């Protein structure tokens, strides 16, 4: 309990220093409009920055799309495409009917 008055004195000095460092603004007719102008200026700078980031992302996406369309798709079209399915390959390796088995035409 002894520290309480000492702590209270420190707190009172801290509040006094705060009041000196941050005086109350003078109330005037232009206070609120000026405050809103500063708020809107801060908002608009954030919107401009966000718009620039979005434009950069859209440009990068467009460049990547053109790259894929111009380079990768022609490369993939050069790869041979097999028309036979897995079942067709297996059917070609095995006799198709009993006639092939009986005649001895098995490959």
Would you give an account of this structure?
The model has no long low-confidence stretch (mean pLDDT 81). The protein has helices at residues 3-21, 31-78, 86-93, 98-103. The chain is 76% helix and 0% strand. The protein has 107 residues and is mostly helical.
- From the N-terminal CA to the C-terminal CA, the straight-line distance is 105 Å
Biggest sheet record: none
- The helix/strand order is HHHH
**How much strand content do the residues show?**
under 5%
Query: Residue-averaged pLDDT, rounded?
Result: 81
Keywords, separated by commas or semicolons:
107 residues; mainly alpha
List the helices and strands and how they pair.
Layout: H1 3-21, H2 31-78, H3 86-93, H4 98-103
Concise account of the structure shown:
The protein is mainly alpha-helical and 107 residues long. The chain is built from 4 helices and no strands.
């Amino acid at each position: 309990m002894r520290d309480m008055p000492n702590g209270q004195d420190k707190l009172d000095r801290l509040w006094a220093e705060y009041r000196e460092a941050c005086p109350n603004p003078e109330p005037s007719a232009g206070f609120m409009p000026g405050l809103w102008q500063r708020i809107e200026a801060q908002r608009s700078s954030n919107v401009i920055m966000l718009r620039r980031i979005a434009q950069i992302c859209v440009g990068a996406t467009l460049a990547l799309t053109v790259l894929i369309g111009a380079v990768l798709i022609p490369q993939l079209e050069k790869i041979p495409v097999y028309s036979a399915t897995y079942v067709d390959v297996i059917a070609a390796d095995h006799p198709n009917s009993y006639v092939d088995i009986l005649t001895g035409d098995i490959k």
